[in-house]
Amino acid sequence: MKKTRFRKFLEDFYLVLTLLFLYAPIVVMMVLSFNGSKSRSQWGGFTFEWYRHMFESASIVEALYNTLLIAFLSALIATVLGTAAALGIGSMKKVTKSVYMGVNNIPMLNSDIVTGISLMLMFIAFGVSLGFKTILLAHISFNVPYVLLSVMPKLKQTSRSTYEAALDLGAEPVTAFFKVVFPDIMPGVLSGFLMAFTMSLDDFIITHFTRGAGINTLSTLIYSEVRRGIRPTMYALSTVIFVTVLTLLLIANFSPAKHPSRSDGGAGAALTRKAPGGNSFQRFVLIAAAFLVVAGVSGVTWQHLTASASDELYVYNWGEYIDESVIDRFTEETGIQVTYDLFETNEEMYPVIEAGAVRYDVVCPSDYMIQRMAENELLAEINFDNVPNIANIGPEYMEWSRAFDPDNLYSVPYTWGTVGIIYNTKRIEELGVPAPTKWADLWDERYAGEILMQDSVRDAFTVALKRLGYSLNSTDPAELREAADLLLAQKPLVQAYVVDQVRDKMLNGEAAVGVIYSGELLYLREEAEALGLDYELEYVVPEEGTNIWIDSWVIPYNARNKENAEKWINFLCRPDIAKKNFEYITYATPNFAARWILDEDQRRDPDVFPDLTQMTNSEVYRYLGTEAEDRYNELWKEIKAQ
Amino acid sequence: MNSKKVRWLAAPYGLWMAGFIVIPLLMIFFYGLTDRNGAFTLSNLFSIAAPEHMKALILSLLLSAVSTVICLIVAYPLALILRSRNIGKGGLMVFIFILPMWMNFLLRTMAWQTLLERNGVINALLAALRLPPIAIINTPAAIVLGMVYNFLPFMILPVYNALAKIGDDVINAAKDLGADERQVLIRILMPLSVPGIVSGITMVFVPALTTFVISNLLGGSKILLIGNVIEQEFTRGSNWNLGAGLSMVLMVFILLSMALLGRYDKSGEGGAF
Fold first, then answer.
1. Do B7 and A91 touch (CB under 8 A)?
2. What pLDDT is stored for residue A318 in this prediction?
3. pTM of the model
4. What are A554's strand-pairing partners?
5. Residue B237's closest chain A neighbor by CA?
């Protein structure tokens, strides 16, 4: 085909443009991995800090091992299973064949969320405890179809007669298969393996629903970090993975080719079409596989070495809700091995405990959820004889806890705080609006496009209900309707509904005002100072009153290590430990003794430690029952769908 | 080898499919057709007609259709270029289009947020060039962009595979018979690549239809897609029955895609992988 210069230029231009589009976010990640600041849009100087942190962080190293091991094992098993199936299906009758192919297509075409949830429902129904093996099983299931679809076309091209010739010449069927058929379908098998590996590596949703205690892959680890802002360590890790893969690929591609492969059709074709590309691709897969076997084996050994203790404790907590060194210290002092696992929302945690899919020993839910768990008899009474440090918890917090735990039987407060408005002083000056003092200010039209609301039903309704002067635990349909109408009217002014991204967005100057948990303030102030921002972020508890929330430790009814759980709670109530946690989490601690040893200005900070006796119009969330919850959810969906 | 014996090689996977595809699917049906107390009901299915669900579904269909069309428009010329240049570097070139998938999906999407934000990278570049800023973050346009970005490889691969399969001699024959380049494209290349196109369309449309992560991260959660509704019923609303019921409705669209795929691609040859 002859081409004009101009046309060639256009083609090149188009290729470069597409590549630019595909690689722009990756370049951004690479740049951010060297950013001295945690913020995603402020440059804080060049640093290798995140790379150092990456190799030091046990949780990241473990997640990386899990990810690679699961990807490798699931791809390998799927390849064997899929290749065998492809051979079998190839010699099937038409009807059986189409049934096989139809069912095989389901995981590819079904949405990930349905696949993930359906597997989770099944594992729970059959009492399979969620963990490494359930992720592996799930990954194999969605990987086989890719292998099958890549081997089938290859198989179709192999001619039966060569195989039969081999048999005629006296070869055993097995020998004939491996000597004659297998080399022909090899490119398809390899590209199936690679596709399976890639899909497993990239999966988040299915892993999210099928994983269990103490197991994270990179995806789930990253997702749990979205809650409090992604640490640049993750960017560093992605950069390392990317550069490794790219290097392997280039080595494989530029080493001299020996023999050209012949093929077309299937992905094998895409990747192996004509030499030397095809050959190099195969070599790449082999190098990558060898690399991963080494990684996998060392991973298994490592897991084996670290998981040998018999005295154990299963902890289920919010993401980024503890100083990791505290866990190590606990193990050091008590000899109890901790399996630590994370959840994102109370609602996500609840069914896991209810179904007993994973038997946790100690969990940290919020107020209203503790009430719901207690009402449904999912909690065990804490033996306070084993928790002498409860004396360090301020009596007023035990008193507030009575709203959801009337006799103080089940829970020990861990953190608490208020919900309020954060604002950017410079931005509101530019807009010419006075500083907000009440929820009603969030309906001021001058804030159009500058408001960040909380993306959670109860918190969003709190804003409207409190503005109207109703209780934030209202179940009255008329009051809720009124609140929903207010939120609908507010929606055009809202920039985004976010959960924890409020912090990043406020730091980046994306919005003027946002609804935020008081616990984020200290972190925000530190970051703002570190970034040297030219504006200040101020916090206000609105006049109409707000939500006082308390997250507390509880012990599920089916805990296997109840005494260890009590040791854990007692340990966390120790002043020095509570102080360490406070400094890491920055959410207010109910631990009086710990507060006493904080810095003067922190201890007296009225935003972090407001005077609860003055907050008479504020309330703690109560569990409202399924009927009321459904009403809230219906209305919230109506608002979001508008 | 005896073809009856060979058939048994598919048995392990048959069992596997029964255990890990069919039974989980039945679980969804079970939840979708019962209420919280375990009594049979169709209300979970019919609730798709509720205005907020209908709105979310229509918007999802619209956005994923737009994304699919854009993916096709971007991928087809690209696949043609790749086809015409595959000698020597074809393997590498195609590999480069899969490579981004080795970076975590969530991180890639977060990175787009960084690019598109009001004070983001793109606006900083535009400001440096003295151009007006763009404001597409938290709009449907940003969601479409996220979908196109994440699912484009699923369109490129099958289309490229279908095109790569067409031998040069077929094209030369057409040319010998007097076809110009346009005619070759429209009457030879396009019809022969239909299985790849159909498979690409399904592989982009289905995940785009059901996504919830992209709309959360790039839509500022202001835009509710049907995937978000389902996800929230499972993770926040605690109404698994409703979530399962809505998933069953979504499966109708998936079945339609499968039927379409089966019609144009009888033997799975247009498969991407």
1. yes
2. 85
3. 0.82
4. A363
5. A633
Inter-chain touch B160–A26, beta carbons under 8 Å: no
Q: Which of A488, A477, A465, A516 is nearest to A621 (CA)?
A: A465
Name the A residues in 493-522 with CB < 8 Å from any B CB: 494-498, 505, 508-510
Shortest distance, CA B188 to any CA of chain A (angstroms): 15
Residue A339's contacts (CB-CB under 8 Å, 6 or more residues apart) are A213, A214, A312, A313, A314, A315
Q: Which residue, among A81, A94, A111, A226, would best test binding to B if mutated, counting the most B CBs under 10 Å from its CB?
A: A111
Chain A: nearest CA to B89, how far in angstroms? 6
Strand partners, A446: none
Residue B233: pLDDT band (50, 70, 90) is confident
**How much is the mean pLDDT over chain B?**
85
Chain A partners within 8 Å of B6 (Cβ)? 87-88, 90-91
Report the b/e string of A276-304 with b at 16+ CB within 10 A: bbbbbbbbbbeebbeebeebbeebeeeee
Residue A626 within a domain: no
Which residue in chain B is spatially nearest to A233 when comparing CA positions? B107
In a domain, A30, yes or no: no
Which segment of A237-246, A273-282, A424-433, B144-153 scores lowest on mean pLDDT?
A: A273-282
Question: Whose structure tokens read 């039209």?
Answer: A445
Q: Are strands A379-380 and A337-343 parallel, antiparallel or unpaired?
A: unpaired
**Nearest CA-CA distance, residue B105 and chain A, Å:** 6
Q: What is the pLDDT of residues B9-67, one digit of tens each?
A: 888 999 999 999 999 999 999 999 998 888 899 999 999 999 989 999 999 999 999 99
Is the Cβ pair B236, A456 closer than 8 Å? yes
For residue A410, how far is the Cα from the chain centroid?
29
Q: Do A202 and B269 touch (CB under 8 A)?
A: no
Residue A624 has a pLDDT of 92
Q: Mean pLDDT across chain A, nearest whole number? A: 84
Q: How confident is residue A258, by pLDDT bands cut at 50, 70 and 90?
A: very low
Which tens digit of pLDDT belongs to each residue from A182-238?
888 888 888 888 888 888 988 888 998 888 766 888 888 887 776 556 678 888 888
A540 in the same domain as A557: no
- B221, A281: Cβ pair inside 8 Å? no
Both A411 and A423 in one domain: the answer is no
Is the CATH code 1.10.3720.10 the one for domain B50-238+250-264?
yes
The confidence score (pLDDT) of residue B86 equals 64
Strand, helix or coil at A515? strand
CATH of the domain at A268: 1.10.3720.10
pLDDT digits (tens, 9 = 90+) for A441-451: 999 999 999 99
Residue numbers in A near B120 (CB within 8 A): 41
Contact A117 B78 (CB under 8 A): no
pLDDT at A277: 41
Q: What percentage of chain B's residues is helix, strand, coil (to nearest 5)?
A: 80, 0, 20
Which residue range forms the structural domain that includes residue A382?
Answer: 312-415+552-614
Which pLDDT value is given to residue A411?
96
With a pLDDT cut of 90, the percent of chain B lying above it is 29
Residue A93 has pLDDT above 60, yes or no: yes
Min Cα distance B225 → chain A (Å) is 8
Chain B interface test: which of A2, A7, A40, A241 (most B C-beta within 10 Å):
A40
> Is residue A21 included in any domain, yes or no?
no
Number of domains present in the structure of chain A: 3
Retrieve residue A186's tokens. 């090899």
Residue with tokens 């030397």: A276
Q: Which two tokens stand for residue B98?
A: 């899969």
For residue B268, the chain A residues in CB contact (below 8 A) are 101, 149, 152-153
In a domain, A50, yes or no: no
Q: Would you state the pLDDT for residue B127?
A: 87
Distances (CA, A) of B105 to A19, A51, A218, A494, B149: 17, 21, 10, 27, 10
